[in-house]
Design brief:
By secondary structure, the chain is an alpha+beta fold. Helix content is 15%, strand content 35%.
Length: 155
């Protein structure tokens, strides 16, 4: 029994030693930094189809207290991560339909789809900051399509 235990301890020690040597001999970067724009979790699985030739755009959006985004839509799917603060999103299909209202706070992830129009409103006392990635933006074009207030959402 002692022999098997000693062999297992020896193998584990050798494995740790190899791991330490592998990490110590890794190629470190130089002149490289990475800035975390946002991190959150979503309660749904999703896929995004990106068309060849279209752009992917990443931005940081900030809604001041009392501010609003104005009614708009997007040419493709948008993934938004709330970095800090809280805001309320009013949304409905571009061609009309039921208005939905959701409040999002720091750490939450949500999607906006090209068939919907939205207006984000910050009713809080601190800025709402979001990391936003826009897919299928026409090359060199705008990631936002201005819309008029549909009139049936209480934004």
């Amino acid at each position: 029994m002692f022999g098997k235990r000693a062999t297992l301890v020896g193998l584990a020690t050798a494995g740790l030693l190899v791991s330490v040597v592998a990490v110590a001999s890794a190629d470190p970067g130089s002149g490289f930094t990475s800035v975390l724009i946002g991190r959150g979790q979503t309660d749904q699985s999703f896929k995004i189809h990106q068309q060849k030739g279209n752009d992917v755009v990443t931005a940081q959006n900030t809604l001041a207290p009392g501010g609003f985004s104005g009614w708009h839509s997007h040419p493709g799917t948008v993934v938004l991560v709330v970095q800090s603060g809280e805001f309320t999103l009013f949304s409905e299909p571009v061609k009309g339909g039921k208005c939905t209202v959701h409040t999002y706070s720091a750490g939450q992830v949500y999607l906006e789809q090209p068939g919907d129009e939205e207006n984000g409103v910050n009713n809080g006392t601190v800025p709402a900051v979001l990391g936003v990635t826009f897919f299928n933006v026409p090359h060199g074009g705008s990631n936002r399509i201005e819309r008029t207030d549909p009139g049936n959402c209480p934004s």
